[in-house]
């Protein structure tokens, strides 16, 4: 966390500043795409985003650790300890654990519903025991806690120009779209962790199943049935992006470039998967560095324009606008829809 970001956010306590720096490091190490997009936010809002994502990454690291049955028991114990520390931190507004301390401070500053954190932790606990999903509906119930609530946590930080409840379904959908994209990109790596996020009914509709996925992973050979299932999962994911898209225009204008950039870059992962022939069982699809640079440059240009407009209107870009009681519906820009 840079001193400039912490100063702009009004975070002065040395221990709290160090806690936010810890969260930023977690976000930078694990989330290259979203970390890049976060740099397009007003500097004063970045620490809060790093706290939210840093905590999520920390919990995810616990459940994703590979190992023996003993390691599984240790993961359960670590997650239980984190749950206790989270409950205490949210109740007291402080914690001896740096990441939880930053999260509790962010929740207090932005009035984030504590229920979102409870739902997230419930999903993390499910990952300790659930290794596959029978139906797409089952998967979407899981992604409510693991992804939709992340979008809802973010919304007060980003700010809206419509009543927050109006933007909330789109923010939740965007969180889910990002996670479904990760599921598709990481099919092979998730198999190595003993998990399959492709629903069994979707696989079966194409004559595929978990053993076939594992065979393909183990042998390095392709199968048209697996490819067809992956293609359908991509189509489902693109549908969730369409659910999310109208929400971009409901955000505070100075936040839109950040979220639009993440929207385009994550959508680019789907393009990369298709371009690579749906080979995600064997290797991770990657958005070309040049494409990432072009999208980031476009986002930066939008940031400059949005901040100039905010200053012209007498607003501080680091402060989210007040949530209106009533307001116009702002459509998503055509280039995103």
From TrEMBL:
SUPFAM superfamilies: Terpenoid synthases. Keywords: Transferase. Pfam families: SQS_PSY. Pathway: Carotenoid biosynthesis; phytoene biosynthesis. This is Phytoene/squalene synthase family protein. It comes from Streptomyces prasinosporus.
């Amino acid at each position: 966390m840079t001193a400039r970001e912490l100063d702009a956010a009004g975070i002065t306590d040395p221990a709290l500043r160090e806690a936010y720096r810890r969260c930023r490091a977690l976000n930078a190490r694990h989330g290259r795409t979203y970390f890049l997009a976060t740099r397009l936010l007003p500097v004063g809002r970045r620490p809060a985003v790093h706290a939210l994502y840093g905590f999520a990454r920390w919990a995810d690291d616990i459940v994703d650790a590979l190992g023996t049955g003993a390691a599984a028991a240790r993961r359960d114990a670590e997650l239980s300890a984190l749950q206790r520390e989270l409950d205490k931190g949210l109740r007291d507004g402080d914690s001896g654990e740096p990441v939880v301390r930053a999260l509790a401070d962010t929740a207090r500053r932005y009035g984030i519903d504590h229920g979102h954190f409870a739902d997230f932790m419930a999903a993390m606990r499910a990952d300790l025991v659930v290794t596959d999903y029978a139906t797409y509906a089952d998967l979407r119930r899981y992604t409510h806690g693991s992804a939709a609530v992340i979008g809802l946590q973010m919304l007060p930080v980003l700010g809206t120009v419509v009543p927050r409840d109006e933007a909330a379904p789109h923010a939740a959908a965007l969180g889910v779209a990002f996670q479904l994209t990760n599921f598709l990109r990481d099919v092979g790596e998730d198999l190595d962790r003993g998990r399959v996020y492709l629903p069994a009914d979707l696989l079966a509709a194409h004559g595929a199943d978990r053993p076939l996925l594992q065979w393909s992973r183990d042998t390095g050979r392709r199968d048209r049935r697996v490819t067809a299932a992956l293609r359908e999962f991509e189509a489902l994911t693109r549908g969730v992006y369409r659910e999310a898209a109208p929400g971009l225009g409901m955000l505070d204008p100075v936040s839109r470039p950040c979220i639009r950039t993440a929207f385009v870059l994550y959508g680019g992962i789907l393009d990369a998967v298709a371009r690579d022939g749906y080979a995600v069982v064997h290797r991770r699809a990657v958005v070309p560095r040049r494409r990432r640079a072009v999208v980031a440059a476009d986002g930066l240009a939008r940031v400059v324009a949005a901040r100039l407009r905010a200053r012209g209107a007498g607003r501080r870009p680091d402060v989210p606008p007040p949530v209106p009681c009533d307001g116009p519906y702002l459509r998503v820009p055509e280039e995103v829809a």
